[in-house]
Amino acid sequence: xxxxxxxxxxxxxxxxxxxxxxxxxxxxxxxxxxxxxxxxxxxxxxxxxxxxxxxxxxxxxxxxxxxxxxxxxxxxxxxxxxxxxxxxxxxxxxxxxxxxxxxxxxxxxxxxxxxxxxxxxxxxxxxxxxxxxxxxxxxxxxxxxxxxxxxxxxxxxxxxxxxxxxxxxxxxxxxxxxxxxxxxxxxxxxxxxxxxxxxxxxxxxxxxxxxxxxxxxxxxxxxxxxxxxxxxxxxxxxxxxxxxxxxxxxxxxxxxxxxxxxxxxxxxxxxxxxxxxxxxxxxxxxx
Length: 287
Fold this sequence. Notes:
Blueprint: H1 2-20, E1 30-31, E2 37-41, E3 48-54, E4 60-62, E5 66-67, E6 70-75, E7 86-91, E8 98-99, E9 110-114, E10 121-122, E11 135-137, E12 143-144, E13 159-162, E14 168-169, E15 181-184, E16 203-206, E17 222-223, E18 227-228, H2 240-252, H3 257-263, H4 273-281
Parallel strand pairs: 3-6, 4-7, 6-8, 7-9, 8-10, 9-11, 10-12, 12-14, 13-15, 15-16, 16-17
Antiparallel strand pairs: 1-2, 2-3, 5-6, 17-18
């Protein structure tokens, strides 16, 4: 009898000790039944999951829309980092709403990504150093994180058109990428910082009415592929000299349609002291 009680106590102590080592808020990682994906169940009451890893030697380029009966809605942080099993054109299901930080970092065999319209966020460094990535279709994404496509040196897009849904851009998003131009079509500028286009050598093209496209992030932007906004002296920079030109144009009234396109910063149809002030106060650095 004593022996049975002792065994029972030992088992009970092991259970207690084990339970104390598990954090209440730490999700349990599960393995898919057949294809090597690891996932956690989302706490959203909707029978969904997040892919958090891939453990297989089999090459794949298809992300499933369901694992073990759970709908896949997210790619977790570092889920496929350094996984060269991800190769060729990446296909994502239209159930995915977000791609986590460094999710595909260093996936050097990845060549093309088409994002479904369901994807709204791309995390920091999500495709960092995917140096074989040749083409990206951004779908209807709303937010792109810091260095998301940093050093994707094999891009063959001559132009990348940013979707009208885009609301924010992180820093160094397309640094060291082989892209000729990034074109924005939405009238309302997405939120950006002065480092958004740092180390990007291509053109940044914005709509002609440039509503909201103000601040240092956009100081080097080309309006509809025509001219550098605010560069009235056409020296390739926007600075105090251009403000002086704006004042001269205002003073003498010798304003051409071309001058209006380039120097009418506030888009009120004339060039005057207000535009000169905007050049001085807002456009601090030329591209």
